[in-house]
Amino acid sequence: MKLSARDRRALMLLGAALAMALAAYWATEDPAPAVVTGGTSVEQAERRLDRLRQVAAAVPARQELAQRADGELKEREKGLLVADTAPQVEARLQQVVRRLLQAQAPPIELKSSDLARLRAVGDHYGEISIGLNFECRVEQLVNLLADFSAQTELLSATEIRIGGAREKDKVMPVRIVVSALVPRKLIPEKKGFGAL
């Protein structure tokens, strides 16, 4: 195979360029690797050691605090309404509310109740709410609200509407929305356009 004059010139230029690149590489390369020093003095090392000892000493106290908080959380979560499905937890809430209405003197008769509403509250809990309509006297309503807070279940009256009392027997119409906390797993996941 015979090279043309043009190919020979291109090879010579390529060889010259390669020689210049190697010369530049060797000229800029450090002859010995740099020695990395810690750059810390004895005083700095002692301060760092003291700081690490303080952090290590605080670990048991923080663990105890975390265990205490975990115990308090478990104690408070005993008040959650727990069931396998949302309809079961709704039935349980209605059962608790009916028991409280019947415990009043005289018992309060429930006129109607709404369907339960479920909604998420944070990442771990949900809330179930039902609306109740009934008639009672003022002292019965006060006692009922006090009984809500005395339950082991975490119940609260989130909405109260009171109508005017009748002159004759001092009975007034009441609409109250009762809410309770439930585990998050009972709240259905949103699907479709609402999940976007």
Brief summary of the model shown:
Helix content is about 45%, strand content about 20%. By secondary structure, it is of the alpha+beta class.
List keywords for this structure.
five-stranded antiparallel β-sheet; 196 residues; 4 helices; alpha+beta; 21% strand; Alpha-Beta Plaits
Beginning-to-end CA distance, first to last residue: 70 Å
Q: Which structural class best describes the helix and strand composition?
A: alpha+beta
Number of strands: 5
Which class of one domain in CATH terms? Answer: Alpha Beta
The CATH H-level superfamily of one domain is Ribosomal protein S6/Translation elongation factor EF1B
CATH architecture of one domain: 2-Layer Sandwich
| SSE pattern | HHHEEEHEE
Helix content: 40-55%
Using the CA coordinates, give the radius of gyration: 38 Å
**Mind summarizing the main beta sheet?**
5 strands, antiparallel
The count of helical stretches stands at 4
* CATH level-3 fold name of one domain: Alpha-Beta Plaits
How confident overall, as mean pLDDT?
A: 84
Strand content: 15-25%
pLDDT < 50 runs, ≥5 residues:
none
Shape: elongated
